[in-house]
Amino acid sequence: MARRMNVNQRELNQHIEFEPNTYYAAFSAELEASAYPMWALVSHLTDATTASLTRRVLSTCLSELKDWLEAINFTSPTVNDSLQVSFHLPLHRYLAVFLCQAVAKQEITLNEVLPSADSFLNLLMMHPLRVQSFSLKLQLLEGTI
């Protein structure tokens, strides 16, 4: 689901005035194919009677994220290329939104649905943390912070 779609390469030699159309198309595609259906699903998972459905979504998200980490050979929290980052986080977003819904509305505990393997959870956090770090660096360079 759009993992590493349109990887952004930091340009060090020249200014990029406008992003290419594919950059905006990727965000639109993610929004329409991923975010809208997610919010439609979440709106129906409002109490403990639908907790089994939420558990199934969370299990699938975790399984797909594990497969993705293995597919890109991301086995340690070391960043090999600090100049590349993808801002597309649909599976992370699904996991976060459904976890929030599970805990807040459906009486599910994190221990019930999250794996106990700390190493997997550490790897899982690396991609969103890289995006935040990249964004912070950009803001510092632009002088907006």
Describe this protein's structure:
The structure is a single chain. It is built from 5 helices and 2 strands; from the N terminus they run βααβααα. It is mainly alpha-helical. It has one domain (8-142). It has a two-stranded antiparallel ribbon. Helix 1 (21-42) packs parallel to helix 3. Residues 1-5 have low confidence and may be disordered.
Give the helices and strands as they follow along the chain.
Answer: EHHEHHH
Number of discrete helical segments: 5
Terminal Cα separation, in Å? Answer: 33 Å
The portion of residues assigned to helices is 55-70%
What is the general shape? globular
Strand order of the biggest β-sheet: 1-2
Number of structural domains: 1
What is the element layout, followed by pairings?
Elements (H helix, E strand, L loop, with lengths): L7 E2 L11 H22 L8 H21 L12 E2 L4 H16 L4 H4 L4 H25 L3
Antiparallel strand pairs: 1-2
Helix pairs in contact: 1-3, 2-3
